[in-house]
């Protein structure tokens, strides 16, 4: 039966939870008037690490997914897609979901434990409408939805015999208990491990308590469950604790090893399956095991499918049981030879390894090929789930997608299983840079972890991934203003592929050739902090002049090539680490602003040499505008189609020049602009529309100006906040009013009037 779902909203429950509680601020200004815009995702499909999927135990076809930086999703069976549930939340920390718990009695109720990391605010979110709207309950204990150990769990559990009772296995503050459906929380005084606290050292984070499991056979409806299990993922004498009196007292269950308890699953006969690892993952795990506990006798049996060998490494994480008692587990961080998934129909006495006979059909998300003939089985396989109503449907999560199959029971008979990306509706990626060209494909994108793409159709997962070379991250994309088919990009090496960090294309980014610029010996260190390693050569951005003939690489002293990388020459006349930008119309002109001194440098010979030139109107001190990290856009921007027109995005305001930077004027439209881009011209106006990521009255949002920055209107509304985790933007050069926004966790979204 479908729930009666009201208009989407978010409410704040103000609670006094102790002296350390601080109220979550409610900013009435967040309702700043927005233009009517329609927002959608640019489709890629999955793309990032998903810690777990949890099925509802009471309604077929209902499941929830938690991500480490992109919020939570609900599987909408009627639409055959995942529905994002936290797009209307303005608090970025809520996008890191530590745990999810569907109610075991009421299919409409679901809880999330949200908090990005130890420094960030945390909350329990409760919904009575399957996540359509939320009550936000701030809590004083911190979480780590995007920290190491985010694959542990599930930490949040509901007593199936008394759904008013919730337990939360916290990282830092022991076992937390609520007896009023999450409205108030307090630390269990009886649980023997109070937590290491927020200041535990030397580790930057720790796993704490890893899971809670109620045994539904130990109680009766309305009276609560007596038997409760809690796992421990910190170094400790014992890693599993048990209560048989509803949490009043606890006893350890000694185990013959020192591994950390990661996840557990309880079958209907009282067998508790626990995965163990030497670390909390998702990386740096060297060893592990799988054990089965006969809960009636408190007796352990080791059932490890394949013990990690020293040359293999890795532990175990995912575990699930089906309605018939079959059990499955995943390895974790077993890079050599591979991570895999096992299934057993005899309680772990024997196992079937699914890897050899598994087939992957990634037609809907072709990037999973990574330029190889066959898609990878997966890595960082922390999550594993079996549909409680259909033992043939199972899924496991990876560092790039979620694979599902409708043939899971075939595995134990040795027959092949076919797996497909179960990601329709999920966009769980971090976007670093975007470029909208005036011709060719609609969009070029630079992603964290998965290189980047050519987007010809915004509704289809792209077939043209940036390869030859494949980057881990694509940090910067530029195109020739008068010849947009020529595109350049820079990035960081891929973990597996390695290779050059520069590339160029002559066909709008569809095919690429690598570039490598010479290293500059004895180069001074760049100003500021945040560079990767002592030599930032591999971080250097690349730009192209207006006619596509000259590439310039921003090493300590910029270098140019006029023969597609065959030879390089140093630019003369520039101080170290000053970065020029090419004019979008005049191929001979480059302009640079030295943020350390405020001086302007101009080249009129296509970057061969630079001369200092006077400038007026910029603040005297631009040191706060110095870019110190490879992913941050450069503050000086040239306007497409207009010779000598420049904008400078400063922490002190927005500045414009129409004479190549000789004079700048401050443009005060009431928005503090953080990033700026130029879109198609408004009807009847000569200057491109401006789009910005910026702040006004304390609200970070997406803004548009049709009058050259004199005034701004907000274009994203309260239903499309995305945690305000906006990383980059690109305005469409051909479609007036359309803007693409790269988020930190929700992929690329784009808005257009409508």
UniProtKB/TrEMBL annotation:
A GO molecular-function descriptor: hydrolase activity, acting on glycosyl bonds
GO biological process assignments: polysaccharide catabolic process; xyloglucan metabolic process
Gene3D superfamilies cross-referenced by the UniProt entry: YVTN repeat-like/Quinoprotein amine dehydrogenase (2.130.10.10)
Disordered as annotated region, ranges: 517-539
InterPro entries xrefs: WD40/YVTN_repeat-like_dom_sf, Xyloglucanase_GH74
Signal peptide: 1-30
CDD domains named among the record's database cross-references: Sialidase_non-viral
Keyword list, A-Z: Carbohydrate metabolism, Glycosidase, Hydrolase, Polysaccharide degradation, Signal
Family: Belongs to the glycosyl hydrolase 74 family.
Name of this protein: BNR/Asp-box repeat-containing protein
């Amino acid at each position: 039966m479908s729930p009666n779902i009201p208009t989407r909203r978010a409410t704040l429950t103000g609670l006094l939870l102790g002296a350390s509680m601080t109220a979550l601020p409610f900013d009435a200004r967040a309702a700043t008037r927005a233009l009517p815009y329609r927002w959608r995702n640019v489709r890629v499909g999955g793309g990032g690490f998903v810690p777990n999927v949890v099925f509802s135990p009471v309604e077929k076809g209902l499941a929830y997914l938690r991500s480490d930086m992109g919020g939570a999703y609900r599987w909408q069976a009627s639409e055959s897609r995942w529905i994002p549930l936290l797009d209307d939340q303005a608090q970025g920390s809520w996008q890191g979901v530590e745990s999810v718990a569907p109610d075991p009695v009421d299919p409409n109720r679901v809880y999330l434990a949200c908090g990005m990391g130890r420094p960030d605010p945390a909350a329990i979110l409760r919904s009575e409408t399957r996540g359509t709207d939320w009550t936000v309950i701030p809590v004083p204990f911190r979480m780590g939805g995007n920290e190491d150990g985010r694959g542990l769990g599930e930490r949040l559990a509901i007593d199936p015999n008394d759904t008013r009772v919730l337990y939360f296995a916290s990282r830092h503050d022991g076992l937390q208990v609520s007896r009023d459906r999450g409205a108030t929380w307090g630390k269990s005084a009886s649980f023997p491990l109070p937590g290491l606290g927020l200041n535990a050292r030397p580790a930057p984070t720790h796993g704490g308590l890893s899971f809670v499991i109620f045994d539904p056979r130990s109680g009766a409806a309305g009276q609560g469950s007596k038997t409760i299990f809690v796992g421990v993922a910190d170094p400790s004498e014992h890693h599993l604790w048990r209560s048989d009196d509803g949490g009043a007292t606890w006893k350890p269950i000694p185990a013959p090893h020192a591994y950390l308890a990661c996840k557990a699953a309880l079958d209907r006969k009282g067998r508790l399956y626990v995965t163990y690892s030497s670390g909390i993952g998702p990386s740096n795990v060297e060893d592990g095991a799988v054990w089965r506990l006969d809960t009636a006798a408190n007796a352990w049996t080791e059932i490890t499918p394949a013990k990690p060998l020293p040359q293999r490494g890795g532990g175990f994480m995912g575990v699930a049981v089906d309605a018939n008692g079959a059990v499955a587990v995943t390895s974790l961080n077993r890079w050599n030879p591979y991570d895999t998934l096992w299934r057993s129909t005899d309680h772990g006495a024997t196992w079937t390894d699914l890897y050899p006979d598994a087939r992957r059909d990634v037609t809907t998300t072709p990037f999973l090929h990574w330029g190889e003939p066959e898609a990878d089985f997966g890595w960082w396989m922390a999550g594993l789930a079996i549909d409680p109503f259909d033992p043939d449907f199972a899924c496991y999560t990876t560092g790039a997608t979620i694979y599902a199959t409708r043939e899971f029971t075939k595995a134990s008979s040795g027959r092949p299983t076919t797996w497909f990306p179960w990601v329709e509706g999920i966009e769980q990626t971090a976007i670093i840079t975007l470029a909208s060209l005036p011709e060719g494909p609609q969009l070029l994108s630079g992603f964290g972890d998965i290189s980047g793409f050519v987007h010809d159709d915004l509704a289809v997962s792209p077939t043209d991934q940036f390869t030859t070379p494949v980057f881990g991250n694509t940090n910067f994309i530029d195109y020739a203003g008068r010849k947009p088919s020529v595109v350049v990009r820079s990035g960081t090496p891929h973990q597996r592929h390695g290779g050059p960090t520069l590339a160029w294309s002559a066909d709008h980014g569809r095919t690429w050739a690598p570039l490598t610029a010479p290293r500059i010996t004895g180069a001074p260190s760049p100003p500021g902090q945040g560079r990767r390693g002592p030599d930032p050569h591999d971080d250097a951005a690349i730009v192209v002049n207006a006619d596509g003939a000259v590439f310039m690489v921003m090493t300590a002293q910029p270098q140019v090539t006029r023969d597609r990388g065959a030879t390089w020459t140093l630019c003369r006349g520039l101080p170290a680490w000053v970065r020029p930008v090419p004019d979008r119309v005049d191929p001979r002109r480059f302009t640079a602003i030295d943020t350390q001194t405020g001086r302007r440098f101009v080249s009129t010979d296509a970057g061969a040499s630079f001369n200092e030139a006077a400038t007026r109107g910029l603040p005297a001190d631009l040191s706060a505008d110095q870019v110190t990290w490879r992913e941050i856009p450069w503050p000086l921007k040239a306007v497409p189609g207009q010779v000598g027109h420049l904008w400078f995005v400063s922490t002190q305001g927005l500045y414009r020049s129409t004479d190549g930077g000789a004079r700048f004027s401050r443009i005060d439209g009431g928005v503090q602009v953080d990033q700026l881009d130029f879109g198609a011209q408004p009807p009847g106006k000569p200057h491109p529309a401006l789009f910005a990521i910026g702040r006004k009255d304390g609200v970070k949002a997406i803004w548009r100006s049709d009058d050259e920055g004199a005034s701004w209107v907000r274009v994203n509304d309260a239903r499309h906040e995305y945690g305000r985790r906006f990383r980059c933007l690109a305005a469409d050069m051909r479609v007036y009013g359309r803007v693409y926004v790269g988020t930190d966790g929700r992929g690329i979204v784009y808005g257009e009037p409508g």
